[in-house]
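Q: My labmate handed me this sequence with no annotations at all. I'd like to see what the chain might look like in three dimensions before we decide whether it's worth expressing. Could you predict it?
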Amino acid sequence: MRLHQQNPELSAYLVADEVIDHDHPVVRELAAKLPAQAPDAYSYAELAYEHVRDTVTHSQDAGDERVTWRASDVLDQRTGICYAKSHAYAALLRAEGIPAALCYQRLADDDGTNPVIHGLVALKLPGEREWARQDVRGNKPGVDARFSLGQERLAWTTRPEFNEVDYPVLYDVPHPVVLAALKAAPDRPHLWRTLPTEL
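A: Here is what I predict for the chain of 199 residues:
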């Protein structure tokens, strides 16, 4: 699949905003600590990936009813669903000058019912020509996502026979339907009933 930028300007994928608030002290502090263990951009991107994947719990898996969406809140409260965790990872990447985009899949149950949008991050490391998608959702039995620039190691691969889709667009800001669902949800059970089913 050929990924393409919604915004043609690469600099747009470095911007701090209300959601990917990498200018916030919580994000800046963590971004400043990680490079001590990471001598280059690749190592930093992998370390930041593992930090978000492994130390920020997926709220559904953990039974946490809080809804987070702002990167600094995700990192501070250490909880969020896939979209929120993607915002946090994108913020850590952008904080160190690594372009980061938000991208999405549509997944479904094994019979093709109950479609839902799943959030990912794509990054572009120095010297790389292509964007590489990453999934920081968090592993559990049956899910083994890993950082990879070559062959993708996402939580799930799409199955066209069940109308699952890899959306090729790389967004510099969260998709409006995703952000609206997050902001409108008073708690995760409500969010789970109102997750977007398509973009």
